[in-house]
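just leaving the lab so this will be short. below you get a single protein, a line of residues and a line of whole numbers that encode the local backbone shape. id like you to explain what the token line says about the fold, in plain words if possible. thanks a lot i owe you, the record is right below:

…
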Amino acid sequence: MSIRSDHITKLILICLFCTLASTSVFAQNFVENYEKGDMAIRFQKWGRAITFLSKAIADNPKLFVAYHKRALAYSKTGQYDKCIADLKKATELEPDFPEAHALMGVVYEIRKDYPSALKAYQEALKREKRRDGRKMLQKYIHDVQQRMREKK
């Protein structure tokens, strides 16, 4: 995740903290659990990340970034069905979140479901504003299209 994305994530958390928390204990719990889950991901402690992010989601089921982070941890542990389910939830809660669409494409590609990977990458590309991100997604789309042609 880029520094800019970290700032955006923190801003989103602050907004959610201010608008969704009915008590300070509730707000403190989901933010604290999200941060612990995020830190566990940084140290590649996938099971620990899943545990903390699940707690954050239980405290605040609208926290779309937590679904995305947990999906990443699920993907690293090979739990692709759970990963896809979390990514679908993240994109349902925040359709304009290109990182979730892109990760979904990667997981579908791992599973060799190239039509679904292509669709997910195209959705990510529609939403991606960063030039480097767009270039990367265009390459992924090209690669998947190539694999689909080779499969025929």
